[in-house]
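In this supplementary section we document a worked example of the pipeline. Step one takes a protein sequence of length 293 as its only input; no multiple sequence alignment statistics are reported here. Step two produces a three-dimensional model, which step three serialises into structure tokens for compact storage. The input and output of this example are shown verbatim.
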Amino acid sequence: MDRKKFLNEDAKWGYILIAPTIIGLLVLNVYPFIETLILSFSTTHPFGIYEISGVGNYVEMFQSPEFWKATWNSIYFCILTVPVGIFLALVTAVLLNAKIAGKTAFRAIYFLPMVVAPAAVAMVWKWIFNSDYGILNQILGVKIDWITNPRIVMISCAVVAIWSAIGYDAVLLLSGIQNISKSYYEAAGLDGASKVQQFFFITLPMVSPTLFVVLIMRLMSSLKVYDLIYMMVEPTNPALTSAQSLMYLFYRESFVAGNRGYASAIVIWTVLLIGIVTLIQFWGQKKWVNYEV
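The serialised model returned by step three reads:
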């Protein structure tokens, strides 16, 4: 068979195989984003009718104290969940990699929260945090308004988010740790390095690429948190203002108030915020991520 014809045949099958993914990306991601961008500069009416009205939605958004409060709530949620969650996931991954009996079962147990519906997780924790008959207050012997106190409601939501994600992040980090050659640890052991020294000078640098991916994923997920807060903090909850994230505000403006133009502007702002954070991550990775084998 002619080499050029063979390459063309391979290219044709390559395009056929990636076509479903490309079509799905265009239909489910690119087109909705373009539509959202257009709507953010529009005034919307019932029955899907809209008209271009300029930057009015953005002016209204940036002048709204509620919008800035929601932005801070989203950032605060990241601060509460990302560092602690990744640290605990890394510790869990190291422990699961150790020579302990039944570690396969422990991996499955830690991963279980990821396969449970977020609504079910939120409802269980909502019962645990209940100030009147919740098990947590009964154990502590006190009455604390975990999800109705504006000062601690976000911390309570962060605890649930960390608990839910720690297993998934630990499995990803575990895969990175298991790819580290045992020869590094053997050489370090012969040189008299302790387990702690091996962790900081071998495990941490070598798993940093996986850690970087997990960090980006967790930051993105935290910045666009919605379902957890929606399920745990009811619209009549006095602490809603202190827990309302950008995506919760988007939901309320779009599906409750019907102001889809303003809601689209919130989405574009969230995408921009995630993009800025991601760019900072890629810029900073040069200082701590080690890609050398």
